[in-house]
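Give me structure tokens for this 340-residue protein.
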Amino acid sequence: MAYQKITFLFLVVLAPFISWSQNDTIVLKNNDKLVGEIKSMDRGVVTIETDYSDSDFTITWIDIISIKSKQNYLMTLSDGTRINSSMYTKDGDSAVVTLQGHNNELVKIRDIVYINPVKNKFLSRIKASVSLGYNFTKSNNLSQLSVNSNLSYTAYKWGLNGSYNLVRSNQDSVDATSRVDASVGLKYFMKKDWFYSLSGDFLSNDEQKLQLRSTVKSGLGKYIIHSNSMYFGGGFGLAFNNEKFTDINNTNRNSLEAYVGLALDIFDVKDFNLNTNLTFYPSLTESGRYRADYNLNLKYDLPLDFFIKLGLTYNYDSKPVEGASVSDYVFQSTFGWEFN
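Here you go.
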């Protein structure tokens, strides 16, 4: 009898926690059911934590036909609408959810492209990755180190992102060469998938005799395609460019530029993710000068949040300083880990 009383009291005490950790139910196309806690959904993949598994489940979002959840979420729809709501599926409404905090509007599951529980803490809104690569050739003792890193934070109406990338080469009888680029940016999301962006880009490149190029950009952008398998969009605006070179004259340049850019992100091809972007800068203060920056990254996801990444970066300047190359490119192969 005493044992039964202790067990009963134990269950009473834990009941609120058990119900809290299993307040979400999802049903898949094959009628499999998962009960647990939805942690997030981004780039077409939903993560759910359950009491009966040591690791979280990751499921393709569009494979879900039914959801019942009491949590409130920050959501983004495919048309760019950003809302705060809970969601549930009515009986008979396969692959359609009711947004309880948004006038009980009915929305198809495939039209929801991002969700994040409101109660989640600061760390839950952060995505970060870092990858390293190293090559060594016995001939001339050629060695090359590559570092590739990204960090982002997403809130209801705005998002922050940053990156840092390094390529450094050493070889006998040759001066060491390096290329470092970094960026930090802010996006403020508006209606119909428009957004305002403010960013700073920084580049140091021995090949182009560039000690430091600092570019501050401000403008507008829009997602043209915003789905669970692809983001495609573009932007335009103005950029202020400050440059310090290592040529014989130690040239300094300041210029005002326009910019226009396109970006594509594909992330629903099995374990592969591809993102690429191109930005074109015609100068408004230097006649006949224009620049272009291009990036391409292909990532293959491995177990335990590890990945392999191949990357290509290309820079072009129609009017470099004397003795510098008009263009430079870097190819990187790295192995890394992602925090999400």
